């Protein structure tokens, strides 16, 4: 369920701290402030992710936020893998993801982690990441609900890891989706009572 532990524990701890700090960078807030679009936490849902940036009406800003949020996880994984080993890569991806959810720079009040999760998985095993993106798109086409698409994609992550021969990812792809579900608790309640906005609506979060 996890890769072989080959990296020194102290090194892993340092990797985790560095990746967490990278993950804590709130690119959505940085971009919207730089462009004079206001404080993202006071817009729409208050979330710091790309979906809420889109509510400013600036599509390039939203796209940049999406890429950078995904890149936080992906870059952390790739650097740790290059310098150390696969166990460090997984630790880095997990730490960057946690940093996005609970950023030290924002009083531990961060985003919901979907983009960072996808970026992390794409870097760890790109076929699994592509499958998750495909799952998100297919679910979105059917439900027209962004949060439902993210939840379905996250839930299928361990299955895709098995299909593509990466059992070493299963442990991580159980833990991270669990956090995605926790962060989407309000969305889940709205999905169940039928009040969750659909893609293209003005209040999707």
Main β sheet profile: none
Helix content: 55-70%
* Strand content range: under 5%
Structural class: mainly alpha
Low-confidence stretches: none
The tally of helices reads 10
What kind of oligomer do you see? single chain
Instruction: Please state the CA-atom Rg, rounded to the nearest Å.
Output: 17 Å
Give the ordered list of helices and strands: HHHHHHHHHH
Total count of strands: 0
Mean pLDDT: 93
The backbone outline, from C-alpha atoms, is: globular
Can you tell me the number of structural domains? 1
End-to-end Cα distance, whole Å, is 32 Å
Structure description:
The chain is globular and about 45 Å long. The protein has 205 residues and is mainly alpha-helical. The protein is 67% helix and 0% strand. It has helices at residues 9-23, 27-34, 50-54, 59-83, 86-101, 114-124, 126-143, 146-163, 172-183, 185-193. The chain has one domain.
Offer a quick outline of the entry.
The protein is an all-alpha fold and 205 residues long.
Which key features would you list for this structure?
10 helices; mainly alpha; 205 residues; globular
């Amino acid at each position: 369920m996890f890769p072989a532990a080959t990296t020194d524990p102290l090194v892993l701890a340092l990797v985790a701290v560095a990746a967490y700090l990278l993950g804590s960078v709130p690119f959505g807030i940085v971009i919207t402030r730089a462009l004079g679009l206001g404080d993202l936490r006071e817009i729409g849902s208050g979330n710091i992710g790309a979906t809420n940036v889109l509510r400013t009406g600036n599509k390039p800003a939203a796209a940049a936020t999406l890429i950078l949020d995904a890149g936080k996880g992906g870059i952390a994984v790739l650097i740790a893998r290059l310098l150390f080993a696969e166990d460090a890569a997984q630790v880095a991806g997990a730490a960057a993801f946690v940093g996005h959810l609970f950023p030290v720079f924002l009083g531990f009040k961060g985003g919901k982690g979907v983009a960072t999760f996808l970026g992390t998985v794409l870097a760890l095993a790109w076929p699994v990441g592509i499958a998750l993106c495909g799952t998100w798109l297919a679910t979105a086409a059917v439900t027209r609900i962004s949060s439902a698409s993210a939840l379905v994609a996250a839930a299928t992550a361990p299955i895709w890891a098995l299909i593509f021969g990466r059992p070493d990812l299963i442990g991580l792809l159980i833990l991270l989706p669990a956090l995605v579900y926790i962060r989407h608790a309000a969305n889940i309640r709205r999905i169940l009572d039928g009040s969750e906005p659909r893609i293209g609506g003005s209040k999707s979060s």
